[in-house]
Amino acid sequence: MLAGIFVLAGASGSITQGALLLAAYSAGLMLPFLAAGLANGWTSWLLRKHGRWLGTATKVSGVLLVLLGIALFTGLLGTLSGYLALGA
User: Fold this and answer.
1) CA-to-CA distance for 9 and 16, rounded, in angstroms?
2) DSSP 8-state secondary structure symbol assigned to residue 75
3) Which 3 state secondary structure label does DSSP give 10?
């Protein structure tokens, strides 16, 4: 993503437009971290309450990521997206 933003910023017509693109990317990257920092107390409470599920959630998301990679590599992802587009 960052490389794409650099290309767009470099190809933009002016320095101002390129700087705005980079600032928008930086703000979008910063906002989740800022929100987590501001909600630190709530986040700590949530992790204490549901911390026992973190290992399971990590394993399930890892399996889903591997399945997504296999679907992407085999071309199944394009087929599935075609079926979903027709269903919508």
Assistant:
1) 9
2) T
3) helix
